[in-house]
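Quick one: structure for this chain?
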Amino acid sequence: MSAPVTASADNVIAMPRRHAAAPIADGRLADADLDRWANRLARLLLGRGATAGARVALAVEPRIEALVAEAAARKIGAHPVQADAATARVGITTRSRRAELTDAVDWLILDDRSTLRHYLVSSDAPLSAVELRAAS
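Got it. Here's what it folds into:
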């Protein structure tokens, strides 16, 4: 079994979990939780038009959210890049960072009420071959 990904648990956006055990303990995020959270976020990226091979700009400060955002982009075959990358059409950020970012990118704002609603109703199951084909 691989070791859990380690990240600071400070300023974490609350994300749902399927079991009673806390996914974040002592600043550690279990691999299974990272995978489920990234699956949900990957589906939101697909819904925004992100595709395999595309660049997804990341402007996410809390370390755990940054790990989930990067994993989500990679799950659909996209390339996570810095927020200032001129070639990204879709990006992931938080409300606190949005004002400093370009309007040329379609920003998925993690802590926006609408994003959270969509996130909460999306599946955390692994992405299907059909979903991944649609992304390519």
